[in-house]
Design a protein that fits this description.
This is HTH-type transcriptional regulator NorG. This protein is about 45% helix and about 15% strand. With about 475 residues, the chain is an alpha/beta fold. The chain has 3 domains: about 80 residues, Winged helix-like DNA-binding domain superfamily/Winged helix DNA-binding domain (Arc Repressor Mutant, subunit A); about 110 residues, Aspartate Aminotransferase, domain 1 (Alpha-Beta Complex), CATH 3.90.1150; about 230 residues, 3-Layer(aba) Sandwich (Aspartate Aminotransferase, domain 2). The strands form 3 sheets. Strands 3-10-9-8-7-4-5-6 form an 8-stranded mixed β-sheet, sandwiched between helices. It has a 4-stranded antiparallel β-sheet with strand order 11-12-14-13. Helix 2 packs across helix 3.
Length: about 475
């Protein structure tokens, strides 16, 4: 078929992609032909199955292969337009969807330091169970869809919780959503049109980046710093691209863990006012922050800022309950979009969440969770540094640390090796705008207490820098 060269500077994944493309272009593999199975190809060429998975997924994204469930991969029929689009267009489909699919498909990997959720025993399971028992004892109307904006008592509670953060709003300025992902998708569809320049954190949140690309946005990166944003670069890119909106995560940013300081928040709002910029503030980790920091929404009072939050990170990811708080005109449009795309959100999940949040032990749970994360932050940071890793920031709170090692040029290679050892890592290219190879890795400190992880990292970096 074709040979692979492990000594070549071209990554093995790219060699496989290029090899199949040439066979298809030359007519050796005709449309409808079945490709070797992933395991067959891996065994025949002496490479990891994860390397082949990576390459086959890229070939699907480029339009050369089509995947048929339970049957395998087949050569796809192509025309000139498909060929041109695949060669000229950005190759974001594989990488973004790899993150969305593989992270959840690989939940069965024993160690998950690259994931984006908390271990089940760190969540408020007892509160959810008590809420479920109380809800089961009530007469709940199962015959309707619920309120368009969501369960009213929970919206009132969100209003009160935001008031504690000095964000003044009414209950009608709160829209409950199916997690923060739906909230961001609704806001993106309300604010972004094809061809619009949109500012985003760099590195940023893969789900959001994929959603914006799908809408046809031109993504303009705002580099993160340990204390917030590179404001000089931000101002220059505003002047150059005239964007209308910035999507950002000031607090406990994923993947870097960085926190924007007060001076940065003020300066960002000044730039927004001067240039007519709307800001979408993703604040889903607010409950993990032990410090009573101001938010962009508290400083702006929802004039230019749309504020997004979630209870999935601290109550339960399975409940999928998030919210948007915004200026009334914006919020009414979002509520209409929510109804168009999926009618109402689940009142049952919202009632269940409301019961957990009004449980007398909820605040005690949050205090304990913050302390537990602080301890894990310190322990993980120390062990990474002892192995020679450089830390982007040391927030001392939240789930994430962003780190790189001088011996690692491409964290994706390390991630595939880790998967063969039953370890899920978070390679940096997944969080980048251009999806280029990156040396950075995102570590979820809540999953970094197993010696098998540290043994693997020590072996992978032994005698190589640091």
């Amino acid at each position: 078929m074709f040979a692979l060269d492990p000594q070549s500077p071209t990554p093995l994944v790219q060699q496989i992609v290029d090899g199949f493309r040439e066979l298809i272009r030359a007519g050796v593999l005709r449309p409808g032909a079945k490709a070797p199975s992933i395991r067959q190809f891996a065994h025949a060429h002496g490479v990891s199955v994860y390397t082949v998975v990576d390459a086959y997924d890229r070939l699907v994204a480029l339009g050369y292969f089509v995947s048929r469930p339970h049957s395998g991969f087949f050569v796809r029929s192509r025309d000139v337009r498909t060929e041109t689009a695949a060669e000229a267009g950005p190759q974001f489909h594989f990488d973004s969807m790899w993150y969305l699919r593989r992270v959840f498909e690989n939940r069965n990997l024993r160690l998950k330091p690259g994931c984006g959720w908390l271990p089940h025993d760190w969540l408020f399971g007892d509160g959810v169970r008590r809420s479920l028992r109380a809800l089961a004892a009530q007469e709940v109307d199962l015959g309707g869809y619920g309120e368009p904006k969501g369960y009213t008592p929970l919206r009132q509670l969100v209003r009160d919780l935001l008031a504690e953060q000095e964000i003044a709003l009414t209950c009608d300025q709160v829209l409950l959503t199916h997690g923060s992902s739906q909230a961001m998708d609704l806001v993106a569809r309300r604010l972004v049109r094809p061809g619009d320049a949109v500012l985003v954190d760099e590195p940023g949140y893969p789900n959001l980046l994929f959603s914006l690309r799908f809408l046809g946005a031109r993504l303009i990166g705002v580099p993160r710093t340990p204390w917030g944003w590179d404001l000089a670069t931000l101002e220059a890119r505003i002047a150059e691209h005239a964007p209308k909106v910035l999507f950002t995560q000031p607090r406990l940013h994923s993947p870097t863990g960085s926190v924007a300081n007060l001076a940065q928040l003020h300066r960002l709002l000044q730039l927004a006012e001067r240039h007519g910029l709307r800001i979408v503030e993703n604040d889903i980790y607010a409950d993990l922050d032990p410090e009573p920091r101001p938010s962009l929404a508290s400083l702006d009072q929802l004039q230019r800022v749309v504020h997004i939050g979630s209870f999935s990170k601290t109550v339960s990811p399975n409940l999928r309950v998030g919210f948007v708080a915004a200026h009334p005109e914006v919020l009414e449009d979002l509520a209409q979009l929510k109804m168009i795309s999926g009618l109402t959100s689940s009142e049952f999940a919202e009632r269940l969440t409301f019961g957990a949040l009004t449980d007398g032990r909820w605040r005690k749970h949050l205090r304990g969770l913050r302390q537990r994360l602080a301890g894990a932050q310190q322990a993980t940071a120390e062990r990474l540094q002892r192995l020679g890793f450089e830390l982007f920031a040391q927030p001392g709170a939240g789930m994430f640390l962003w780190a790189r090692h001088p011996a690692i040029d491409n964290a994706s290679t390390l991630a595939y090796q880790a998967a063969e050892h039953d370890i899920l890592l978070g390679p940096g290219h997944l969080f980048g705008l251009d999806l280029a190879p990156s040396p950075w890795l995102r570590f979820n400190v809540a999953f970094c207490d197993d010696e098998a992880l540290w043994g693997f990292l020590a072996s992978a970096t032994a005698g190589r820098g640091g």
